[in-house]
Amino acid sequence: MEIQTPFDALAETYEQQFVHLRIGQMQRQLVWNYLLPLVNKRPLRILELNCGTGEDAARLASMGHSVIATDASSKMIAQCTIKMGDRQENLQFVRSSFEEIKSNFTGHQFDLIFSNFAGINCIDKNEILQLQNDAWDLLSEDGHIFLVALSKACIWEFLFYTMQGNLSTATRRWKNPARFETESGAMDIFYYGPSVMKKLFHGFDLSKLAPVGFFVPPSYLENHIPSGAKWLNKLFDWDQSLQHWSILSNFADHYCMELKKRNRT
Asked: Treating both helix axes as pointing N-terminal to C-terminal, what angle do 74-84 and 55-62 enclose, rounded to 10 degrees?
């Protein structure tokens, strides 16, 4: 029986609604600015969680890494297959939720587990604790987790919706959980600050923390920005200068966190 998820409804339009938007491309490039030092050293065995339509998986595979890209939505995985076909032997797409990775990949060992753009916000604290245990078991001795999460307090979101008079949406990240609805169903979204996320991944040491989208706005504001707006490029440049301003991770749209596996004693 095919498992249905709320993200099934987004699968066919995800690329148009996020991947190919200027803001989506800018935020993804900000993530890659922080990811590249980790993946440029040697070929890695990578497990990607919540891969969406496979944009990051394809790039990682093109760099020579061996990539298994997973998503809980079978329709997202179908889009990946349509998009990539059989072009890369070192890239495999598998339908798998967070809680299934341990059982689905027993016997595998990865150098990197990668989760981009808020997949981690779709599970609660108990599920994150289970994920960190499973990830620890699946990672090699010097393995890393690299995740990108929605922040607890996005300044752009607060100001935009406050000016619209929509205080409920302006403050939704302060609530846990917030409800997310699609044509395929509804789910809870959980917002975690970096300090909470770090504690949840207690088997790992923090290697890097950086804001993603402090100056660049959330992607849902794309339609409010003129197509030729050069100031958006300036915001992107400012965002790229924030790699040492980890404190701003609390107020950006997203933040990225690199965690290194700690030896158990």
From this structure: 40
- DSSP track, 61-115: HHTT-EEEEEES-HHHHHHHHHHHTTS-TTEEEEE--GGGHHHHTTT--EEEEEE
Spell out the domains of the chain, with CATH numbers in brackets. Answer: 6-152+191-261 (3.40.50.150)
Quickly tell me which residue has 């699968």 as its tokens: 11
Which amino acid, residue 260?
A: K
* Each residue's pLDDT tens digit, 138-187: 999 999 999 999 999 999 999 999 999 999 999 999 988 998 887 777 88
Query: Quick check: pTM over 0.90?
Result: yes
DSSP assignment of 115-127, as one string?
A: E-TTGGGGS-HHH
Peptide bond into 177 cis (omega under 30): yes
Q: Which of 218, 196, 207 is nearest to 243 (CA)?
A: 207
Q: Measured between alpha carbons, how far is 189 from 175 in angstroms, rounded to an integer?
A: 9
How much is the pLDDT for 2?
58
What digits encode the pLDDT tens for the residues 100-150?
A: 999 999 999 999 999 999 999 999 999 999 999 999 999 999 999 999 999
For Cα atoms 177, 180, 182, give the angle at the middle one, nearest 5 degrees: 160
CB atoms within 10 A of CB 81: 11
